[in-house]
Amino acid sequence: MASRFAQRSKSFCHTEIQKLLDDDVKELIGDFTKPFVLPTVEGKRQDLKYITSEVMVAALNGEFNHLVEQILVIDCRYPYEFEGGHIKGALNLHQEEQVEEVLLQTPILPSSPEKRVLLVFHCEFSSERGPRMCRFVRERDRVLNEYPNLHYPELYVLKGGYKEFFPLFQTECEPQDYRPMHHEDFKEDLRKFRLKSRTWAGERSKRDLYSRLKKL
């Protein structure tokens, strides 16, 4: 009886220790070299790190410059949304092939190990397109590097997206306006971009399948 209790106790301790280790790993950036520099909040996707609009503005205004060399804001909305109003300095990359070309073919790296390059993704609500692109960058980055090394170990998603950011910080946007994805005047643009997105997703699935078959 005592032996069984000791075994259960040992198993419980191991489980608790593993949980603590897992929790610690979650607080480290993707290459496990250091903690996340920006304060994060709970978000829809448990595997992603979310920041508030307030933290975004603080970072863009240089409050973390002692550790951060560059912040790249990746706006994953369609071009007509972006043109209707976006965060100053943001890059409009709504297709995976654009991200491959701009971020991964020639990675933007910090000048020293002490400094960081941060990527912050968002879309209109940061519910689908932004998180999906964030995951895509991490997946491709893993493929391109020997584990656990990464070009971009520190990725964030802007919680609430542009819809939540704009009314709070209009002066940080240009033009100072907000054009929703389902705008009446851009129905044809929406149809066109959605069709392109589905086509690209289909082509990527075929490439991934071919790549896996080659490894068999």
From TrEMBL:
A Gene Ontology term for the protein's cellular component: nucleus
GO molecular function ontology, one term from the record: protein tyrosine phosphatase activity
Catalytic activity: O-phospho-L-tyrosyl-[protein] + H2O = L-tyrosyl-[protein] + phosphate
PROSITE patterns assigned: RHODANESE_3
Coiled coil feature spans: none
Gene3D superfamilies in the cross-refs: Rhodanese-like domain
Domain named Rhodanese: residues: 67-174
Biological process according to GO: cell division; G2/M transition of mitotic cell cycle; positive regulation of G2/M transition of mitotic cell cycle; positive regulation of G2/MI transition of meiotic cell cycle
CDD domains the record matches: Cdc25
EC annotation from Swiss-Prot or TrEMBL: 3.1.3.48
Keyword field: Cell cycle, Cell division, Hydrolase, Mitosis, Protein phosphatase
Function (record text): Tyrosine protein phosphatase which functions as a dosage-dependent inducer of mitotic progression.
PANTHER family found in the cross-reference section: M-PHASE INDUCER PHOSPHATASE (PTHR10828:SF76), M-PHASE INDUCER PHOSPHATASE DUAL SPECIFICITY PHOSPHATASE CDC25 (PTHR10828)
Record family assignment: Belongs to the MPI phosphatase family.
Protein name: M-phase inducer phosphatase
Organism: Conger conger (Conger eel)
